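call fold target=NitT/TauT family transport system permease protein
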Amino acid sequence: MNKSGPWLAIIAQRLTLLAVFIIGWWLASRHLPAFVFPGPAKTWQAVLQLWQSDTFFQDVGITFSRVLSGFLLATLIGTPLGLALGASRWLAQFFEPLLAVFNSVSSAIWAIFAIIWFGISDVTTVFVVFMTALPLILTNVWQGAKTVEAQYVELARSFRMGKLQTLQKIFLPTILPYFFSGARLAFGFGWRVSLVAETLGASDGIGYRLRQAGDLVQTDQVFAWTLLLVALMLLLEGGLLKPLERHLFRWKI
């Protein structure tokens, strides 16, 4: 039986979809001015210009470091808080309305607050990513902790397992899928909101370059940055996050 058949079919489908997208893009660009809707060829030239520029890798690195800092901070704070809410019904009932408030506040509002509080600095973007990612990670870990069977916890106590052992042997295997699901969402949202924060309150990074290109009506540069961002997210998703998920949960297969 040929195992490569399904993969070849998927690749063919994706290439067909890509071809349809590019053809549709090209046809639409023929009826609009280039400064409004640049075509694939002009956008590709802009991609090459960005790739060869002196600041491209610096801007990508700065944005990525801000996203990663906010994401890690949200993970370090959100994970133990989620465990605490899952372990205590009283805490969950007390803090649930506050969590709902945080979930309802837009990232753009956090960006405005961050500019008022921190000015144009790295802290502004890190803060916005943190405030966006924290509720997602906290909520998913909380939901995962709620699914831990009480009988397993009681069994761990009967074996006189310490809190750290109980966390490692009972809670961690249960909440890990929930945490990973929340972390993937948080990182993806964090990456997007970082661009909003950098557009409003940064002097470097991808968001700043997008705002700069928009102010100068360099629409081909905006399209080029958009394509590069999509390619980078697909690379992170397919090259890092999905393989990591398969490795962590290989015991489920």
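return ok
The CA atoms of residues 119 and 185 lie 27 Å apart. The two ends are 21 Å apart (CA to CA).
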